[in-house]
Description:
Strand order of the largest sheet of chain A: 5-4-3-2-1-9-8-7-6
Oligomer: heterodimer
Number of strands of chain B: 14
Helix content of chain A: 40-55%
CATH architecture of chain A: Alpha-Beta Barrel
Structural class of chain A: alpha/beta
Amino acid sequence: MSRIADCFQRLADNHQKALVVYVVAGDPSPAVTVPLMHDMVASGASIIELGVPFTDPEAEGPVIQLAHERAMRHRVSLRDAIAMVASFREQDTVTPVVLMGYINPIEAMGYEAFAALAASAGVDGTILVNVPPEEGQVLDKALISQDLDPIYLLAPTTPEARARMVFERTRGFTYYVSVKGTTGAGNLDIDEVTRRVAGFKAYATTPIVVGFGIKDGESAAQVARVSDGAVVGTALVSLMAANEQDPVRLRAAVTELVADMRTAMDAVS
Amino acid sequence: MTSTVEDNRQVASEVRAAGINEALTVMPDEKGHFGPYGGQFVSEILMTALAELDQAYRHLKNDKNFLAEFHHDLEHYVGRPSPLYFAERLTKQMGGARIMLKREDLNHTGAHKINNCIGQALLAKYMGKPRVIAETGAGQHGVASATVAARFGLKCRVYMGSDDIARQSPNVYRMKLLGAEVVPVTSGSRTLKDALSEAMRDWVTNVDDTYYIIGTVAGPHPYPMLVRDFQSVIGIEARAQCLKQFGTMPDAVVACVGGGSNAMGIFYPFLEDRDVRLIGVEPAGHGLETGQHAAPLSRGKIGILQGNRTYLMQDSDGQVLDTYSISAGLDYPGVGPEHAWLKDIKRAEYVAVDDKQALHAFRQLNRLEGILPALESAHGLAYAMDLAATMSKDEIIIVNLSGRGDKDIPTMAKLDGISLD
């Protein structure tokens, strides 16, 4: 069984929901990333989405755009992000790590070379923001041949017929983007999320996690109640910007936010 | 030899009779691919909006009322057809092939950009979207978008890199006069590509009531196709005008390429005329060897940015490189996917011209023909001038003079050390 499937099984056994955390590799500096990954797991994170820095993060709001810029100042590449996962795996062989980002760095490396390198480092899957299933067919073959999960997204604008198609292609889990907008935008409409996720559940082939608009324990708990997990990105990345110069305070702040969310989510599961 | 008002009327009716759908050849495929290029590399939120746009366009391009409105506005609002003008003194100076200028600079708002904006504003209207957004580099597409928004009563917001705002101030003010909101983009390289990313972010947020008018033949499908179709009026006219004036096809058609909309517009109707050389001219900036240029077809590698796979200026890690050209409208690291395909199948040739050569052509056209070209168009002109000198006097080159240079006067005056204040 893959680490992702294992993880959801373990969560189900413990009557817990997945807490998925997003940070950009190398933000605010490369040395901080792997220790932060361990901290987040220790305080209750279930799955780590490691953002791969890109010059043109076109689906991100201002907070995560700046995170990409901070990491780019350290010239953190796709290769570096994969190396961080390998380093993380020296101590943690259980927690799933998926790479999240844009296709061009993978296109530049070559699909098969990427899949081989990522798998050997202990990566579990990819979430590529600008690759809908229609454009991912060739890449998926390379990923699946290395037992990596191509994870696809659903949006408020996705009609049912399309959602069924997405579920035929996605593996590991599926990411429901709960708000029309960029990362960090808008407020969670929990009734709408509840309605859509319940609809998807009728034909879902994987667990569904919900992202966008989750900033604290309360919103994480609301989402956890109606889905298989909550994704927190912008709220975490804001802490990188606020504590850029002080890694000790940064790690404390990240630990606190993740632990708050875990506690709030466990209270409703 | 030069075109007359009478000729222009004749051509206008021929263009109307042909209709834009006549100009379609087989590409792209249903999913928007030109061979390996193009496609829809966008976030899931936009996939449904793009499918709706594709469906609306495929229906409307054969709709009589839509086409009638499009051609009516091209004639009465834009001032089409634009003349195909014999640059006699420039030709004499170069001593070779006849240089014919397709005068897109004479269009309303001063460039070819308005053709596409009329088409897309009509799409917005037919799709019931009250708000339009646009990205702009030199400001020409922003002005054209703000113009059609005023003409059709649509709300308009234009995203523009803060560096471009600084070097194209007349156009910024003009957009504001037209009632558009101009939003400076300070992320990334603060130029056209960042303005495009910011417009995409607006679109994902406001997708229900907003139509995104992309200004070039790039972005996700169906944009490269529909922008090309709306711009192909340039090539349809030029082809008919050349036949009428000379009874023959041109030997070469030359156009500058940034994103590539003016080039695609004039090339497309000539694609099946295999003896006609199609030459796209990229900006070599300070020189291809310096790395400071914006010539992905000449020096880029295949990559994916802003919705499509194409040739891209990028490093070995797949990060997009900063580009440079004196011309803001050509300062873009990607290029329309159909150009990438035409390059690979060798139906079109792509060359590059540096700042110096473009500036020389800019000055020559002023002095010899009394025409002030846009710096963008001066790139195509520069290559055509050199090419003409190597050809015989009975041969014909058509240059797409895609825009006028009024907007570049501050840049030129600064180069000449003249203060305009």
